[in-house]
Amino acid sequence: MDEKSPQTERVIQTNTIVEVKRLTYTYPKQETRILDDLSVNISANELVTLVGKTGSGKTTLALCLNGLIPHVVGGKVEGSVSIGGLSPLTERVGLMATVVGLAFQDPEAQLFNLYVEDELAFGCENLCVPREEISRRVKQFSELLGLSSFGKGLCSNLSTGQKHKVAIASIIAMKPKLLVLDEPLADLDPLSALDFLACIEKLKLKEDLAVLVMEHKIDDLAARADRIIVLDGGRIIANGHPREVLEEHGQYMFSHLGIRIPQIVELAIKLKGRGVSLKPLPLTPKEAFDVISRFHPHFISPPLEYPQEKGETELEIQELSFAYIHGGKEILKDVDLEIHSGEFVALVGANAAGKTTLAKNMVGLLKPDKGRVLLQGDDICKIPSASIVKRVGYVFQRPECQFVRETVQDDVSFSVDISKESHPESEKLAADLIERFGLKDHLNAPVDTLSRGQKRRLGIISMLTLGQRVIILDEPTTGQDWRATTTLMKLLKTLSKETCLTVIMVTHDMRVVAEWAERVLVMRQGEIRFDGRTKDLFADPSLLRESSLAVPPIVELSDLFCQNGASHCFPHLSIEEFVNSVEFDI
Amino acid sequence: MTPRRLLFSYEQKNSFLNSIDPISKLFWVVAIFICSLLTSHALPQLFILITIFLIGTFLAKISIKEYGLIVGLMGVFSVSFFIFQSLVIGGPTVLFRIGWLPFSAEGMDIAGTVALRGLTLVTAGRVFVGATNPRDFALALVQRLKVSYVFALMILMVLRYFPLFEEEYRELRDARFVRGIQETKGVRRIFNSMKDYGIPLLSRGLRRAETTSWALDSRAFRAFHQRTYMHEIGISKKGILFVLASAALMIIGLAMNYCI
Amino acid sequence: MVPNLGFEKWSSLEIVVMVVIAAVFGVIMTYGQFLFDLAYAAGGFWAANLLAGVFHTPGLMAAYMIRKKYTAFTTQMLNSVATVLLGSPTGLNDFMFGFLEGVGFEAGLAIWRYKRYDWLSIGVAAALSAPLSSIWVYVWLSLWTQPFWSWFPAEGLKFLYIQPYVLSIAVGLPKSLEKAGMVLPYQRGV
Predict the structure, then answer these.
(1) CA of A174 to nearest chain C CA: how many angstroms apart?
(2) Which of A257, A452, B112, C81 ranks highest by number of CB atoms within 10 Å?
(3) Domains in chain C: how many in total?
(4) Cβ of B51: how many Cβ atoms within 10 Å?
């Protein structure tokens, strides 16, 4: 550490908002320490990202910082914590709320009032802030977070991302010294996530806040954070500048902790394996371009792709139009498309483009106002619902809502019982799927105890057991770590190849689209604006921009090379593709 | 008919009744309530009903269609009650018969009073709810009637969660469809609905309750004995005048009742 | 104006649990009221009271889960105020029903000095709420003008009709949640 004058030292100490010393915690009636001898400091104007896999102690630490642990949750705690001079271990939660603002992952659990403006004022009112000051803060922070137009509106009419912003604005209006955000990006689409992070950065500077963000998805955060702290087994294994931490621990974070590190960092790790060491470690496509260019890369032509024979038509949509209210605004307008057996299709678009509405029409949850949906040649409106569910499955974004039994085994057996008559192999199929999807050891577990990724896989098994040839997945990657995401995608891809299962996924995650989907449907304002190969989509940046779709960093990097005249350059959709097609003149 | 339209009946309108304070409206509706209970003849009850209907139509801008749904249903109850009770309550003055069933003037007067009372209470309630912002009502309870803020917040939270549970109900219904569960038909469906929907909704809500309570505490809920309010709900002069005018109409109604 | 019912003694979790129960039952009851009125039209009190159990459940469920004084009354009032504000078909009557049913619940639980929460105590509390709610039915329908036989048997037996529904939901559901691993508020020792 540099020699510092006493004055500087005092300044640093004054700026330190959070001081955690040797914090150890065990939940009530448990033996294992969830936090083990943890020490960390955070200063004002710092954005610190705390990463770790599920169960590593991130949320537990958050609860320790505002006093919910130990005053509400209980348990055994040792060590000391100080936030702005107050100790949450001794002061009551209400008083800690004056210095710590804690936002949880589920926005529905954090909004208590009918109207947005009342929600924004709620915390201030509880702190006895004078009325004029409350109004001023409500106005200030709703403007800062882009919520001004929602002020007089109902909280229930907001989107998930907007609800999150309202919860955070309400907390910030209380003027805390530390803002703790527990997985704020989990349910946000990429563009909303970027917008959200930009707001947090602005707030941090304007309000002199210390910000602690807990996430397992840091591809957007890494470039913005001042520091990354890695938690593993309740202990801090890394604490430093993102570049340093990712350089030293990136591989471990990715492969062992399942953390979604920036795609560019993943690329750097892969290139290191080829003897190309990128220093300083790039975090963004532009940085990667600058660093990689020093090695004089050139690209090999991609292998020729032969058009594949299309399978049978599984799903056909003819001139489909749909409005939720009869005579009201059309959500779908004259949609035409054909989906064939064995295809792996991504259905993408900005919020409110009509993706989920189209997906629900495909499965008979909604009936078209005009046009037809044909399932294996039969009009979906004319076949009984019992027949529909045996042909096409739908896995909800929250798979827990479709479990009908208490345990894994029972829930799968439910589907087996329904399909036994028409599909005698269903029991064998179920057993096979359970094995492949890694749930064999959880057969007797209550469904509520499964992780999000496991729940999603169970949801898929319960669908496919019915013998369906088409499966539709609504946001299958939301709230999952990267390892769970890639596992799921690999399984689906394999099934698709082996059994000609048609997979349609509604998603915002363009990185998943780039790496796994063969065909993409881009929706905008209820119409299909693009229907073609994934490669062709990413070769058209204007379409991506118009449709408010995020571009995966690897595609952006390829684009930079292409724009700068690299030979045989083409949009690379995955790290593997880039690494396999690049050569260096070192 | 979609019962869903019942939910959340308040609408922001530019009407006289929307502009007066919730306490005045509460006094008005309580006065109607008491008056209606004290009335023992059909004609004054009808007078009260018509008064409310006119207030709702002209001072609260409630359309016939908006009345129709709620009042229509109570109408079903009222009509059936009227017919049944007219037959059950006898009287010396038989006005007409249907077959051997006598309908007496006394019986119809009493049955009519009660039937109209039901319509009166529902209509008054509809007008009150349609013209009163629930947030303002909850705040008025706290600031004017000294009801605990905790109870007022609980009311607001219940209203806040209604659309959420509605959405979750629809999601459950869709999920049951994709799992191939056939909904029971007829009367059994009513009894199964608690098991099929009520229980999952309750379970979900209760599982979320812990995080919600943590979030409340983290927002300094009940951190201090006092709290301030961004909105202040007073009692308006217009409101007082409205209450006085309504009281006069009620007195006329009661006078009619006692003169009969 | 309103007596302090011990709001300060309830934890935030208990408050939220009461809200959730009131909200879910509010949705059920607002739709259920339609069916109740249709049932009355079809078969008078005898038919309608078969569905009455649902109206007597929220307060008792909250009491079973939280086990503190006045939780039953508060939840029932919360439910009735919310259903009025949501435009319930019975309008302001809901408020009176909620109040009287809540009083009945508290009377029933007070018999055991709020120390017993099981099938028996909840059943008795439900049974006591039935005649109290019948008082309001008596008043607003002016039942004194009508022959005893036309309403008393159906209303008089309401305390029996409501038992299966109340007990299976107010006691049965929390028990099954407990079996599934949920820790009920009263078990948290707050």
Answers:
(1) 20
(2) C81
(3) 1
(4) 20
